[in-house]
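Hi Prof. W.,

I finally got the Cytochrome c family protein prediction working! I wasn't sure whether to trim anything, so I left the full sequence exactly as given:
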Amino acid sequence: MNTSRCLTLLLLGLASLPALAREQAMLSTQASNLNCQPPSTAPNATASQELFDQYSWQLFIAMNWPAQAGQRGTPDCARQPGDPGYTVWQTYKTVEETFLPQGVNPGPWNTPLVSKSLGIINIAALKNSSAVQAVDQAVGGWLIDQAGNPTYYDISVNEPSYNYIVANHLYNADIVSKANHINFPNGVIEIKSSWRILPPGVNASRYLTRLAQVATFNDQGQRTGATEAYLGLVGLHIITKVNGYPQWIWSTFEQIDNVPPKVQVNGQWVDQPAPGMAYSYFNPNAPAATLNQSPCDWQTQGTQMVCVPKPGTTFQTPNPLNRFTAIAEVTNGVNSQYRSNPDLQRSVLKYYQLITTQRPLMPNNPSNPLGQPTPALSANVTMESYIQPNSSCMNCHSMATPVKSIYKSDFSYVFKFAQAPAGKTTPDQTHKDEE
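And this is what came out:
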C-alpha cells in the first residue's frame, strides 16, 4: 500500500471517529510535548472542559519554565522545568514595582529583579498603612495554616500588561480613577500567588520555593515588623486575556498537600486524607462546623472595618479548611496525564494540580456581557477559602474598578494599588475586595 493511500485511509478513519474520541486522540499527544512558550491561542468557546484544562496545564508549564537571565518574563528554552533559578512568572513585575509611592512612573520593563517582600493587608495595621505589600484573602480575612503561620499573597503582571499600564499612566491613582475605558490588549497575563512558611519537618522538595521578607504580626494581627522566611508556593491563579475571550480565561492551581481529595461515598462527597499525611490546611479532628470559617470578628475602627480574631482565638490559631467542591473527574484525568509526564519528573510541578479552568461559554453574546462563566464556580482553597460554595472568579472580577471610581477596569483589580501623586490624598486602600 503506497504512502498517500495510507494517509488517505488514516484521515478517513479519523473523520469517522466520534468528536470526543478525536479530541482524546489529539490530547494524548499534547501532554508529552512540553513547550516553553504559552499557548498562542485558546480552544474554541464550545470546546470540552478537557481541552481547556489542557490549555491551563500548558500555560502553567510555560509560566514555570526557567527564566532567561537578565530578561524578565522570557523563558530560557534551552533549559527544562526543574532546572534551578527563577521561573518566568517570578520575573514578572509585582504590584509593588508597578504602582510606586506618589504615583511616579515605574520606568522600563526590563529592570533588575528586586528582593521580594510579602505581607497581609486585611488587618488594621496594614490597612492603615499606605505601603501595600501584598493582598489579602478574596473575602474573609487572613488564613493561618496548620503550623500556625499566616499565608502570604502576591500579584504580578507580564510585559504587555505592564506596558499598557505605563503607556496610559494608569500607575497614577489620580489618572486611573478617571479612566472610563480601561481595555487591556490580548496577551496580558496576571498572576496571583499564595505562599506558606515551610516549617522544619516539611518536605520542601514538593514545593516551588523562595526566600522572602515577610511581615510579622502579634497575636491580634497587628504588624510588628518583618523577617526572612523560606516559603513554599501553595496556590497560583493565572488569568489571561486571549483573542476571542474579552472576559479572560481563569486557571487556578494548588499544591497537592493543601487539603485531601474528595471521594463519593453513598452519594456523598467526603474527604479522604491519606494515612499519616500532614496537610497544610486540613485538620482531620476539626469539627465540621469549624471548616472554612472566616477568622474575623469585624469591628469598626474610625472609618474602617477591621478584622480582629474571634473570641477565644488569636492570629496564630489555625483556620482548618477542606475542599467544598470536588475537582471534576475530567480535570483529575488531565492532572494525572501531566503530573506523570516523564519530562516533569525532575520538577516540583508534579506536586501541583489544576483545580479548574473557568471561561465564558458565550464570550461574544451582547445580551450577556459576562459570557456565562463555565464552570459556574471556581475556588482555590488558599485564596477563596471562606467563600467556596459560591466563588466565581469571573463574577467577582467583573465588578472590578479602580479605587474611588465608578468605571470598570476590565476584570482586573491591580489598579487598587495605584497611589496618588505628591500633594494629593492617597486613595483609600481599605476596601480591597480583590479576588
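The longest strand covers residues 223-242. Does that look reasonable to you?

Thanks,
D.
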